[in-house]
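Hey L., structure's done. Input below.
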Amino acid sequence: MILSSAERKGDARERLLARLLDTFGEDLPSPEVSLREIAARTETSHALLRYHFGSLSGVLAAMLKAQRSRDNEALFEVAQQGTFDDLVVAIWRAYTRPEQLSRVRSFFHVVGLAAYRPEDFREFIDSLDDLTRMLASLAEREGLDTEEALTMATVAVAAIRGLLLQEVLTPGVRSEDAVALILRMSTGQSVPRTRPGP
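Output:
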């Protein structure tokens, strides 16, 4: 079997990505390190990283997409067995573990870059709806119509990401009731005020 140059490039890229993931484990390289430093740590060349990923941002986006894909496999198991609420709780717990802080920071770093150059981050951007789709399918399984299920899932994921960003920016301020708040918001229940209104 003869492989096209595109297929060979894809295989080489996947092997290099696997090497990056093996080297860094569950972490991602800091956005402050250079592509040369990453190349040295993974025992490859700077030129090879640039060829396959384009830039440091491309390396981060590819690694993050692969790590999120692995996370989603575990979360999918929860989705198969549990409810919408169970999956929201599992997502929140998965990303608020202290060892995930570096990856959560990297997620928001890459999202910020993608906001300015979406054409450079299309593959990453396209992967962002994975949790929404998973939650929406559970909401449909629980009796909501397709549109309501998608709205409920979209609100839940947006709330999770917003609260995760708050945790990155102001650690320790996270509400202990975050998951309950997310579930109430996603189902359209009113959220009790914390102080008297006008």
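The chain has ten helices and no strands. The mean pLDDT is 84.

-- N.
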